[in-house]
Structures
1.
Amino acid sequence: MSAPVVDIWGPISPEPRVATPTAPDPHDEWPLNGGTAWVYYSPLNRRQLVRPVILSDGFSNGTSELDTLWHGLEENGDYRFISELHATGRDVIILGYNDRTAPIKDNAETAIDCIRRALAERVGRAKLVVGGFSMGGLVTRYALAKMEQDPSLPDHETAVHLSYDSPHQGAWLPVSLQAFVHFAADNFSDDPVVGDSLRLFSGLLNSPAAKQMARWYIAKADDTPAPAAERVAFLRELEELGGWPRNLRRIGVANGVDTGNGNGIQPDATAVRGNGLTLTDTWLKTQAQGDQVVARLQKKDGEPFPVHTSGLPEIDGAPGGLFTLPLPDGTDPGSFGLIGLLMLGLRNVVDKDRIPTSCFIPSISAVAAGEIADQQALYKPITPDASELDAFVCASRNEPHTTMTEELGAWIVNEIVSSS
């Protein structure tokens, strides 16, 4: 089973995960302000940094893990991205963070520190390639834009910014999922089986980075879904920096299709339902347009609580990168499936007929080609002139978020080589 580069749900899974092999020792390791950079020189460059490519980690819980990142980039079973870059004489710098849930601006400072170190260590004058996976594309986008606007910072000397399934127009965290997590954390955070997972999940959804990334956010189950104040402030600050770095080529890829064809998930369908020792007829539905009850939450012997939305698009089924949580038994619970695991851990019976996953990063967000709140834009074919990127490519199928494939990876390598 292919492993994602950014393992979003991994640290909060109530089920054991696939053991990740140990990454090879880096040739160099740079302690950074707020993170770490692991340097792998191309065999063609004799342990010198000649043509640096900085690849940033994205959003997840806790500290970046080199083993997970290396596995997703190089041992994913489809395309050896690092080896292919090395074969072109590119040196790979994997950028990780002490706290992947920190505000984007904070981790952007770590990215700037990494860029400065790369420029100082570089032999020759080859320009850099800087980018990242998932939120890492946003972090590096902000960092490079700031370096262009802040006169106290050096020239970033970067030729290409790349983003891999990054939420340029926001990410989708199902409102029903958010509501269940808030409800479960309030009622079962001391549970001996899944209490730790619930506390971690709640903290992840309520973290600064999640609030900045999510297009719709609720702080509690009865909130009205809307952009968090943190997201509004971040977008304003990004716009003040010009929105994008300008003195380079912007490229990106999506793990979803550009044809407008969705992933097959129907709106207003019951995604997961649990009933048993701790829950009574508790269910989550996929998102539909118009006024909708997206979840019914009820603690055993408690009062039922309906969760309402209004005016949202049918986004669970939209084309785009999918939530993923690969397990050792070959299953992938995704997003709604993760809720099912938590319901089971709370000693309930979960309906077998359920929808495991949903769209996470709509294709139009990953390639900056439209507003994800727009139902028509979500399901409309993406044309090159619609994107804010200079070049992009979308996957030929809707696949798990940040899955490295030959289709996408080879396109990036070709773009890097042709831009230098």
2.
Amino acid sequence: MRPLLVPSEACGPPVPVLPKVGGRLDSLTGLRWWAALLVFGEHIAALKLGTRVGEEERGPADEVLYFLFGTGTIGVSCFFILSGFVLTWTYRPDGDTVRRFWQRRFAKIYPVYLVSTVLAFVLFSGMGQVPGAVNVVLHLTLLQSWVPEQSLYFGLNPVTWSLSCEAFFYLMLPVLFLWLRRAGVRTLYAVVVGAVALSFVLPYTLGALVELPRPGEEMIPTGPVGGPFAYWFTYVFPGFRLLEFGAGVAAALLVRRQAWRGPSVAWSLAACLAGWLVNALLLPPRLQHEAGTFLPFVLLISSLAVADLRGGWSPLRGRRMRFLGEISYCLYVFQLLLLAVVAVTLRPALAAAGVIGDREAALPDWLVGPAALGCLMFCSLVAWAAYRWVEVPMMRRLRPQFARPGTTGRAAAAAGAETGAPAEAQQPVSARTRA
């Protein structure tokens, strides 16, 4: 099959468009697990298991975890870029409808999200802290990230603020796709570069110039990033995080056209490692959520996609990595609630067993690593159960039927292939039922 040719610029030479849109990109499924692991590591490091409760200075084992995962929120940035890339890769407005696209997105993310929200409500209520009606309504409608107050956007299950962003991305994808699908190659590259540049510039302009008239109570200190508004604007605000999603859209269109020119998987992995080091050691807190690893993640995602299409080398394509990637959405959604239970029960249990001196004592350094690994295994087991008994069954029940009279085979294949959610974190390109 010869590739379709489209103009690269208004008067430029034709650019080949990849005919196999929606083909499997298993490496991106595996990448989802590592993005979720970064976020999990940031949360497990925040527990400070190797430090006595109430002490500010971290113990040696906690220092190691903090060095590795202290900027683990970059995993969310990876998810947002993945979301834009994956959804664009499988999106076919010529053979599907916007309503059906939104219905599939709802079927993919909302059932698991709803279960986690109800569980969070029960946990808070059991501790005598019943969430208010406004908080509950904002979460049920996925609007919490639009309100610059921590008690609301972190009010129930804190990690699900990113799903509020995702809901906005889903609304915007048809618009972004129609705008960028006819853009030239240089324009698409400019979108990627411009988005990366704005991630460095905006935190020092609007994010630094605006103050909230009545900042609410802080669950996470915002001083290092410039205050409550700057923290919300550069980390939680869906409009700002649209930069990452939009860059993923542009990169996917370049790959679809066979116009992507970037480093190999190996060099992209090296760029991500360098970006992580720069992010952790050199950048100020205001830029650590996304700026330092933004471009490296775009390079890695695109190079993995190209490697999958061409049969090139990839360390993330194996069956085990695909399985871990498939459960990563549930791991992401439930991890913090599960770690909250661990934080309440682990030290008392170890104190009762005589492993530590009292219920607030630090864990021995030798035990911190195994305890963190045990928490990861526990959270992964729960994630697998939620994937198996909530995510997959509800997707089958709620998503639109593909093979209906009048539905073209091409549209049905595209609909079956579409996946993702960070959170995306969904199997990006498989047409199997569990996608």
3.
Amino acid sequence: MKYDKPFKTYDEQIDILQNKYGVVIDDYEFAKHALISVSYNDLIGSFKNTLKKDSINLSEITIEYLYELHLLDKSVQAFILKYSLFIENLFKNVMAYTIASSFGVDANKYLDPNNYQVYSAGTAFKENVLSEVLPILMDEKGGYQPTNYYVEMHNHVPPWILFKNISFGDSINLYNVLKKEQKEMVIDLLFNNANAIKYDQKVEILRNGLNNIRIYRNLAAHNLSFTEFRLKKSIQPKQLYQALPGLIYLTADLGQPLNIDKKACKGLYSVVLIILLLLNTKDLKSVFVTDFLNTVFQSSTSERFLLKTYLFNDYCKLTAMPKNLFERLHKYLKLYEDIL
């Protein structure tokens, strides 16, 4: 059989980069180092479709530039991972508080099917929630801490302990099947000063936004295509226009989001927006923006700063983020106090 993706030696991979894509390679040893440490697919596979100047050519782009672009991508992925864990913990804390205050601390009561919708937003309580949660409570999946400690040493497993062991996806599924009273409690705790958004919109924003964070976190954690991935269920930018001033741009008549914002909200920008929406103090929002800025331009000399500016412009092209992202972020921080 003739395979369409046959094995290629490093010499052959370098030859393809030079002769098929026109990548500039002046330092052969560096090119080999880049392919050994990054891999051919990660080095060019995620970038070639967006960066190519014509049908197959990447002329004037050096192997060093592609390598730096890959490093920037990994830095941004690590940044998103960090804040996705923060948002996951925040969401689970609010969910645990809501469930405990509504149904108590006995699992037989707070997981009683009568307390939840049978089916909502593609989630079935028994099939998608109980089937995943009960084995953890019964210690059937082996060695879960701290849940198994509570099973052995206490007479109940309260919700805030259970949420330490269930996955982000399972906790989102549980949110989906909450009844309206409990959903409203979760939303009131999470959507600080976002009264301009209607309740039904908040439900949708939270569901899709948290799923988007989970998806991008998994892409980063498993080294899957991150930059060019686009979401099937994006958050609608117009819903966030008043809650996130300065981050969403509308047409002159304020009727529709700009096309660039529509495209951006199908990619990584969706995750940036939902994180900023849920970071519920000015200090946390400011730390997020500063941390993001440092991730992109960390310890740059004037020469390195210029290079990283070019890199970030290309990275925005790859991810569909607005090129004036940091201008928007700083504008948002200045306007945020006006909506408090």
4.
Amino acid sequence: MTVNEASTRSPSTRSLASHGSSAPDAPQSPGSPAADGSAVGSLALGRAAQELDLKRGELDLAVQLGHIRTTPGASGGPPRIDRQEVDRLCRAEGFPDALRERVRTVGTVEGARRIAISPARFTRLARTGHFIPIRFYLNRYRAVVWLYLAEELSEFALAHPTLLSGRTPPALRTMLDTGQDRRARNWRGRRLGLLLRRTEDAWERAAAIASVLDPVTVAEVVPDPYERSHLRVLRPELVPGRPESQAGREVVERLLLADHPDEILWHRVSLAQALREARDLRPAPRPAAKTDAECGGEAVPRRPRLMPVRRSPPGRGLLRRLRIRRAGPVG
């Protein structure tokens, strides 16, 4: 599929909270600390999915979209869900079908059937940016299959009935005739927005923005190698897994990186701004300084390692001069 896009936003776009994974919990006695040091009464995401009667992917999406609140895991571990949050969701009206419907995703054929249009018209509206994908995957032919939130499609149909029938507006026909396809760009923008809402840390926000730019562009915006290294460490995963085949990975990599000049410029400016905020907060980590006892315990910067100088074996220069003397003058 073609993935050259320009940016638009659908009125039905939402934001997310956080995302993670963990193994199911072991039983805990009331009032006792959790085995992994986490707060008492919290559940790992896998265990919470079972109690909420959701598939793991559905729970992850509900967390991302902010339908389910999480708490930070102990010692930087995966996020967890409080028992009170699980009980609140279980008591909600229409549980569990109502919650499952909010995170239901559909492809082109099912989405077109849901809003009573043809798959061809659905594709045209998606390519022109009226439907923003929430996920994608590669089928066995390594073609990109975009997924959309079913709830958002229904809302769009109610808000824009004139786009579901009749002739395609001239402006949209012009975009389609020039080969524009905004699905990948809109997915990147949405995914990045969800990641940025998950953290308030300036360095983590800068790393999220850098994740949609190619290494050359990042190096132009971030000339300091230590800052670039720190951003790589904090870089989030835009997709949970990568295809096993090299050809599949190449397709996914093309979807992850900004490829339109306007999009690249926007992210460059955003990254530069995020870096200024991060530097004001704290500098990026650098090689540890060693303590010199002779300097009263003061930190002494580590000297840069120099490349060894190659020296000729002993006697080689003398033998060369003797050969030149024996050969006599030239000419």
